[in-house]
Write a structure and sequence with these properties.
The protein is mainly alpha-helical. It has one domain. The protein has helices at about 5-25, 35-60, 60-90, 100-130, 130-150, 160, 165-175, 200-225, 230-240, 245-250, 260-280, 300-330, and strands spanning about 180, 190, 195, 350-355. The strands form 2 sheets. Strands 1-4 form a two-stranded antiparallel ribbon.
Length: about 375
């Protein structure tokens, strides 16, 4: 697949335009999005991703079009796992509801930049070391087993309290003074001649850097479907940028996806096997079959892979919603997990104090 520099420039311009539209249309005036707003914007993001896929199909052919769509659906499925962590982190930082859009958007932008680094690194490894597919495949199979283990565990009722920020965020909070609450949408707050960072900035950085652990899974996964960095980046960009509105659309439904871990395990396990099988077909490792290819099992086509991923995802969603509906009928208390939902106006000089859930309350504040 030959992509002219203009192709990369057009993709970058499209992504930048989407970010600017988000900032101007949603973030500049903090508000809590309605279900209708979140629904329409989610549809718009998905439509944009489909339109881009249609362009890929028309310009570069059906094979690359299928690779893009398979990659996009896979990234979209794996990104649902991100939402669980985002809910937990936003609750832990007690981010007011009307500021959550800003936290998610800028956190996702940071994540997208970091993912680009992973994508380019992955492309370089694949280009120079074919045996890296063994490592990618083994890692995804291990991740699939981890998903199964997580699915068998009872969900904690204190996940937000148990959350601890990553090392970078904890170090930042120790080195730079942190304000005692949120001051509107300010990232920095100056008072009595002293400048501090606000919990809002810490939450943005926490979400952006936390995505690294998801990139370690998702980047190898999509490279099993396409080895084209252009398609890998596009699929990641569209799936990540659509997460913000998806968060507000389904955050109350996340706890209903009770079989999500098993569905993701099946997808990751399949992709891991596909990577290992591909590595065997292109084997150059001397200790395996004297460095000759091993072609015992045919490689599944991109169409078969796409169909498998889509089928597993649909079965997972339908089975989860059906089972959770039956569960709700036998319980009198709601099970949906909600982040902080304060939606009253915020005065920039009237701090919203962090609560006991504050993940930095253990001495990081100054």
């Amino acid at each position: 697949m030959e992509v002219h520099a203009l192709g990369w420039a057009a993709l970058a311009a499209l992504i930048l335009t989407m970010i600017i539209v988000d900032i101007v249309g949603h973030i500049r005036t903090p508000h809590e999005p309605t279900l209708k707003e979140a629904s329409w914007w989610s549809i718009a993001y998905i439509a944009m991703a489909i339109l881009f896929g249609g362009i890929v199909w028309a310009v570069w052919g059906g094979e690359y079009g299928q690779e893009y769509f398979a990659g996009y659906v896979t990234e979209k499925a794996l990104s649902i796992d991100n939402l669980f962590v985002f809910v937990m982190m936003i609750a832990a930082f007690t981010v007011p509801r009307i500021l959550q859009q800003e936290v998610l958007l800028f956190g996702i932008v940071i994540a997208l930049v970091l993912r680009l680094v992973f994508i380019l690194l992955g492309a370089a490894l694949i280009e120079n070391f074919s045996w890296v597919f063994y490592i990618f495949g083994a890692w995804l199979i291990w991740t699939a087993l981890s998903q199964v283990r997580e699915g068998t565990q009872e969900p904690s009722e204190h996940e937000a309290e148990d959350y601890k920020p990553g090392l970078f965020v904890r170090t930042l909070a120790k080195v730079i003074p942190v304000s005692d609450g949120f001051y509107g949408a300010k990232l920095l707050y100056r008072h009595a001649g002293r400048t501090t960072i606000t919990p809002l900035l810490l939450a943005i950085i926490a979400i952006g850097t936390a995505d690294v652990m998801f990139a370690v899974d998702s980047i190898p996964a999509i490279y099993s479907l396409t080895e084209e960095p252009y398609l890998v980046f596009a699929a990641n960009a569209f799936s990540l940028l659509g997460l913000r509105q998806l968060y507000f659309l389904i955050d109350g439904l996340l706890d209903r996806l009770i079989f999500l871990h098993y569905g993701l395990a099946a997808i990751l396990g399949f992709i891991g096997f596909k990577l290992v099988n591909h590595a065997l077909h292109t084997n150059e490792v001397a200790v395996i079959n004297d460095g000759h290819p091993v072609e015992l099992i045919p490689e599944p086509s991109i169409g078969v892979s796409f169909a498998f991923i889509l089928t597993v995802l649909l079965i997972t969603i339908i089975a989860s919603l059906t089972a959770s509906a039956r569960r709700d009928n036998t319980q009198s208390t709601p099970t949906a997990r909600k982040a902080n939902t304060r939606s009253t106006p915020i005065a920039e000089d009237d701090p919203i104090p962090t609560t006991s859930l504050d993940p930095l309350a253990t001495g990081a504040h100054h």
